[in-house]
Amino acid sequence: MTVTRPSGDDLVEMLAALANPLRLRIVATLAGGRDYVSHLAREIGISRPLLHMHLQRLEAAGLVVGTLELSDDGKAMKYFEVADFDLHLTATSLAEAAATLTRSDPAKGSGEKEKN
Amino acid sequence: MTVTRPSGDDLVEMLAALANPLRLRIVATLAGGRDYVSHLAREIGISRPLLHMHLQRLEAAGLVVGTLELSDDGKAMKYFEVADFDLHLTATSLAEAAATLTRSDPAKGSGEKEKN
DNA sequence: TGCACGTGTCAGAAAACGCTTACACATGAA
DNA sequence: TTCATGTGTAAGCGTTTTCTGACACGTGCA
After folding, report:
1. How far apart are CA B113 and CA B106, in angstroms?
2. Which of A47, A108, B16, B100 is deepest in the core (most CB within 10 A)?
3. CA→C1' distance for B27 and D22 (Å)
4. B22 chain-A contacts, CB cut-off 8 A
């Protein structure tokens, strides 16, 4: 498996997505096999809207992938599975990522168009 | 360097500490050498109280270490340096960590004393 | 005595986050 | 038609996070 090397902003988003016990559990459960939203919600023991929100965050970070499929009885099911990521976090690897950060850099002033 | 393998709760705390552009930049700067709070605040371009708060979070997560020292002219200086960590994040490694989570486990009910 | 430098901490506001409840729509089966 | 299943989404609310500003204390030096 190749090591993922995201940009600074992307890394922050991925870390923020993983820095939550519920979302960590969601990824862990999906690591055991793909599942659809309603069933996964029952499996973990949380409400479906809440799971929906967390899955959105995980998918936005590129950690899980969702695909809308049609079951045999014609129902629309959204299946999720974990993406193929491999993050390596070290002081030096973080320094490399931080060098590519575009937002919140008071030192560089407002180089970019950052609607902070 | 040995790979750090924290518990689920500790991992969440470490990830939360890193999931912030400013704190990522702080770690990156400290990776280039130890520094004391006031100087580091000027270096990064943020206020000292704000940096103080971020350093507290990073230290609580075990990512940086602070030591209070006395300079030659008798001033109390708090020097910070990065800790020696090496996190490896994979779907399976996250699953292992998630298995040790103690908080927010609706499936297990409230096994622990969790003042949620 | 006053200024410059270091430390720490507190109060308050704006924004983001986590969660519940309720609503909308679709399908197949009783 | 009604129920059970699946989907999505919006409103509301309490908590946490993030940040500024002001205060406290200490030392050395002009």
Report:
1. 13
2. B16
3. 28
4. 104
Q: Residues 6 or more apart from A46 whose CB is under 8 A from it?
A: A22, B106
As a whole number, mean pLDDT of residues B75-82 equals 96
| Across B71-81, average pLDDT | 93
Residue nearest to nucleotide D28 (CA to C1'): B73
DSSP assignment letter at A108: G
pLDDT in tens, B12-48: 999 999 999 999 999 999 999 999 999 999 999 999 9
Which of residues 77-116 of A have CB within 7 Å of strand C?
none
Q: What is the pLDDT of residues A61-96, one digit of tens each?
A: 999 999 999 988 889 999 999 999 999 999 999 999
- The distance of B70 to chain A (nearest Cα, Å) reads 27
Name all contacts of B52-59 with Cβ < 8 Å and 24+ positions apart: B54/B20, B54/B22, B54/B23, B54/B26, B55/B26, B55/B80, B57/B16, B57/B17, B57/B23, B58/B17, B58/B23, B58/B26, B58/B27
**Domains assigned to chain A:** 8-102 (1.10.10.10)
Residue A64: predicted pLDDT? 98
